[in-house]
Design brief:
4 copies of one chain form a homotetramer.
Chain A lengths: L4 E6 L3 H13 L3 E7 L3 H11 L3 E3 L2 H5 L6 E4 L6 H10 L3 E4 L7 H14 L3 E3 L7 H12 L5 E9 L6 H6 L3 H4 L1 H12 L3 E9 L4 H5 L5 E8 L4 E7 L7 E8 L2 E5 L7 E5 L3 E3 L6 H4 L1 H16 L8 H20 L3 E2 L5
Parallel strand pairs in A: 1-2, 1-4, 2-3, 4-5, 5-6, 7-10
Antiparallel strand pairs in A: 7-11, 8-9, 8-15, 9-10, 11-12, 13-14
């Protein structure tokens, strides 16, 4: 067993920067040896800030570096599957941002390469590593609420993405709800068999013109009988709204949003507090670090990764089923997808 | 205009007693002149406690009393439609506990009689008069949250009714969810066009054997585009759970449960409070009084009643559609019902 | 033992009306036979509303009525001691609004008359009967928080009384803090030995010109070692603020304010709720009823009253000590007061 | 202006380690060049973890290093004054953990040296940099609550320190309350003129035998008329309890404790959440980083430090006055201290 992990980062955008800083500043067990970005200046700048010895415009410089044990794939979504496949061929362990791809064929090809290479693959469903959601999962696992019966997930963004992004996003179910699909499976610890969707456009007509929806409720039928609902909206005027609630046979557990401070102000108008954390990078700061700690630990100590390739594939199936349910206005079984 | 209303009460059971006490002790504008119950002793006892001059085993003694302006129908559910019809024929204004009937034919016949007689009819959907739900409705009406987009109703009983009751209850959708159907229409101020149900038995297998469900999620598609979900369970181990949440274009509003006290205890184990009010008569005490205040006011001052005959009929249609959706495992439009 | 209590009410002002309505409408075990008020019209009006057979301008008509078992003294504060004494002489059980008097000599004379007559006397410290404060007392009694060490009482009025009232009120410590002195003794279940006061005028200079303060902190040293603080202000812009907190060796308990509804509204500005109940009659509605239930029960069933004459006297001693501490800028032992 | 600050750290204990890690991993604008600790192994280990080039047992190696711009004094409390003085002589900017000393003579000598040298000195009252307390200060500064009138600080440790530590701690007022004295001055933005203390031993008799108290309430009289109370206890069974509340003429602001997660669990026993963060290093994590950011910024950009030498001295005066008040059982003016 090695004492620390040599890591290469592909993609020097927002999430690439966050992960590189985490590895550099918060994780003595990891060392970033190289950063690649097609925008070489971005790679160089990040490398300078974090003291990373190599910056390159070619991701292959990372994959071919024999000193590198593991790669973080933080590049554009359309490259995830291909880079995962190539990294597997190169024998690197892989942490890949979600989704690997929006087509099951691409995902399956990448997962096959990973399986063949025998490397570890962890997918970036960071919310599993949030303290509140982790506490809910613990309650379910420990039986604190008995047998789960009903799940409700509220997942609302503070503001919609640009329409240009919406057009290439794969649609709300694959772009936004996919996190909630993962959360549903994670919290209940069982698979979903069927989905039913009601959706519409209430936030921005341009999103509708782009062929997408911005507001939706997705009903989930789990194999173990649990019934779930996901309440999605591209805009919550009060900020980033991320909550879950589970009713079980012996109790219920729910979570609150995260706030920038714990102050409550009362005056002649109301009793109030400041808005919840508005930006996913603030809301989920710790979860981004925690998932890397888990990944580095899994690789260094040859443990199972906590979010597997299968965990990356199933939410895509759910997203495709949700889209089909919406278009066909009927419940759709997951087994109908491929 | 009269100064006060002379009322007759039919049915001296639990809700009959509550209403009689409210009229007697809290409403100077109303006077109870007679109480009828097939169980004469019950009628007599309640009359004695509340100083009501007449107790009778025959409801017709109430309907035929020319001094009585209005009747409260608090008898068994199977008598509501018939008594409403006869009270209308007798020219009495009517406050009828929900539901008027579980068959649309009976309801329609009763409503026709009411229309023909020109009397007022208010139906006992008391939850509309709860301070928290009223505040939510106010927020919607005033535009405090902008245009509503998503509605979520949590409605869970502390414990299931006896199976013997379940068998004659008309099923959970007509017996329990009917209050939530009313709440959904009330809060959003629009009609539902379609329902879709997932349901099962997680509380008591005997309820399943009786042909009913005890756990359900009902998705609602409103005519104005709002998407709603109702989360129902016959048992919440922590007590009576009654909450709503609406997301609108400019904000959201949600409610908390009601508690017997506002004390928070912290010790080496947790930071906690006592369980929410467990019994619907405690949770909704004020709403039962408020609905009578509104009824008496509507009759005395010839105002529209706040909960109409139509408000009684539509939730039954929704309940029938929910049952059909559950049996046929598909979304059901309300227009499919009759 | 009698089945119900015949009561006479002296004083038809605000609290007299509340108590008369409670006895009339909510307590089958009590019957109001007479109401006296120097303002005869007020007595007559209240009698009419509540169906009380006798209204009089002379309180002696109440005291001399042999059918009356007990009297409620709800008249002006300056009459409490004298009426209590006379009622005792007349052999009536007595519920007297607080304070009996602001002079210990008057209180002692009244209490001596009560003792001599062997009648029951309960004093109107209604807050003891509030569900939240009762829950705190229960926690202390049951040992849920172990041995109490620190007590903090927040007691702030929504707005100061008129200066004309301030001038005859006996000063803030005897007029307002007196309730908190009672609460402190009630919650801890021990006596206070010493008080120390810091106070000033922050709300209304006219209160200062009238020789009083409107803002104060009173430190209490209990015989059992508990240290208490009372945080008083004549104005809280956000409404009536009434909270307590106790730290014990095994935990802590605190209370929240009471709100008109449980709705929480989130928008682009804040996450907020409506202001707490603003008026003491709304905040303490149930406590006013509960204290009468306890009084009627104590008289009918010859039980000890829950708030005794001594409970009326001690807070006056504390108020006098507080005034002395403020004037002399030093801690004052209660034994220094007469 | 330099781009980054070269820092030397004196003291490799708990807080020294935290600060070194913060400077190393979270602050690109700072670089740690040397670590000194009389325990050389501790200095070497920390240097190795953080990549610090020099570790030494002699703090003079830090003070004499011409490359070092600023020093962090994180050694034992009894060395703070001397090291501050010597660092000033050496021309280093200084961040010194609180307190500089428990004797005013030592503090004054150190502050004189700092003044003479013209270096910057910031003292480690980290709580000022906590988001919740910062929000309260902001509310006061912005006038959101109008003119402050009453301040209440709750500051309770999860468990008392070892008695051996208590004996050398300078007593609770100088060891624990000193943070609250600073917080009181910071939040109100005014000076305290007089203190009055009630205190006792309720947690551990051994603390009493050591001549100290473990439970206290300290009343503060501010120059601007605000009245404050500090509620201190060495043990809160439910964890670290750190809250403040201010009443102003136009409103009030209060803070909640910090929790490890936002989950609420309801079952047949209670509605509850996990205990608040129990350890000051967890509760105040961000504040420790924020204070260093401010220090580095102040030195690099020649701005005033946010916590001055005077801010270090005044709380010691308050602590000495509190001790005197307790011993003499009377209010003590700060001007009585030296």
């Amino acid at each position: 067993m090695k004492d620390f992990l040599n890591v290469g980062v592909i993609g020097a955008g927002r999430i690439g920067r966050v992960h590189t800083e985490t590895l550099t500043y918060r994780m003595p067990a990891a060392r970033v040896l190289a950063i690649a970005d097609v925008n070489l200046a971005a790679a160089q700048q990040l490398a300078a800030v974090c003291g990373v010895p190599k910056a390159t415009a070619d991701y292959r410089d990372v994959l071919n570096d024999p000193a590198i044990d593991a790669v973080l794939i933080c590049s554009g979504t359309d490259t995830h599957a291909r880079f995962t496949e190539e990294a597997a061929h190169a024998g690197k362990h892989i942490f890949c941002e979600k989704p690997i791809a929006q087509s099951l064929a691409e995902i399956d090809q990448a997962l096959a390469a990973v399986a063949k290479a025998g490397v570890k693959l962890q997918v970036g469903f960071n919310r599993r590593f949030d303290a509140s959601f982790r506490r809910v999962r613990d309650a379910v696992e420990r039986g604190e609420i008995g047998q789960p019966a009903l799940l409700h997930i509220v997942s609302r963004d503070p503001a919609p993405p640009p329409v240009a992004y919406v057009k290439i996003s794969g649609g709300m179910f694959l772009d936004m709800t996919i996190h909630d699909f993962d959360m549903a499976r994670f919290l209940i610890g069982a698979e979903v068999e069927e989905v039913y969707v009601q959706a519409g456009v209430t936030v921005d007509p341009a999103i509708g013109e782009a062929g997408d929806v911005d507001t939706a409720v997705i009903m989930l039928k789990f194999a173990n009988g649990v019934i779930g609902t996901i309440d999605n909206c591209r805009r919550a005027s009060y900020g980033y709204d991320q909550r879950v609630e589970i009713l079980g046979s012996r109790g219920a557990i729910s979570t609150m949003n995260n706030y920038p401070n714990g102050a409550v102000l009362s005056d002649g108008a109301s009793v109030r507090r400041d808005l919840p954390l508005n930006f996913f990078m603030d809301r989920y700061t710790e979860s981004f670090a925690n998932e890397l700690v888990a990944f580095v630990d899994a690789v260094l100590h040859d443990k199972p990764v906590p979010v597997t390739g299968s965990d990356a594939r199933v939410p895509v199936v759910m997203g495709l089923a949700a889209g089909k349910s919406y278009r066909e206005a009927r419940p759709v079984k997951l087994c109908e997808i491929q």
